[in-house]
Amino acid sequence: MAFGVSGCTSISYYAQSLEGHVQIMAARKNVGKLIRDPSTPKALRSKLTSASAIRRFATDELSLPDNSSYRSYVDIHRDAVI
């Protein structure tokens, strides 16, 4: 176990990571609702519509699982999560 946590020297690293994850999960919005919402910016609506079509193709044509993947969106206000 000591080897597993040696790269992160303090509990604060894990606490910060957990806090960030919880904040992102709490801020999720349903993609379908965002597409239908007239206040959603046109550029974002277009991207979400494309992503939904791609997801539908993956499920219908490629027989990939129809689960909750790619059904929610969060604007994290930066280029990367990490």
In short:
It is built from four helices and two strands.
Question: Any overview of this molecule?
Answer:
With 82 residues, the protein is mainly α. 55% of the residues lie in helices and 5% in strands. It has four helices and two strands. A two-stranded antiparallel sheet has the order 1-2. The radius of gyration is 17 Å and the shape is extended. The model has no long low-confidence stretch (mean pLDDT 90).
Total number of helices:
4
CA-to-CA gap between the ends? 24 Å
Mean pLDDT over the residues:
90
* Content-based structural category: mainly alpha
Rg on CA atoms, Å: 17 Å
Largest sheet: 2 strands, antiparallel
Mass-distribution shape: extended
Can you give keywords for this protein?
4 helices, extended, 55% helix, 82 residues, mainly alpha, two-stranded antiparallel sheet
Produce the secondary structure layout.
Blueprint: H1 2-5, H2 11-26, E1 29-30, H3 31-36, H4 42-60, E2 72-73
Antiparallel strand pairs: 1-2
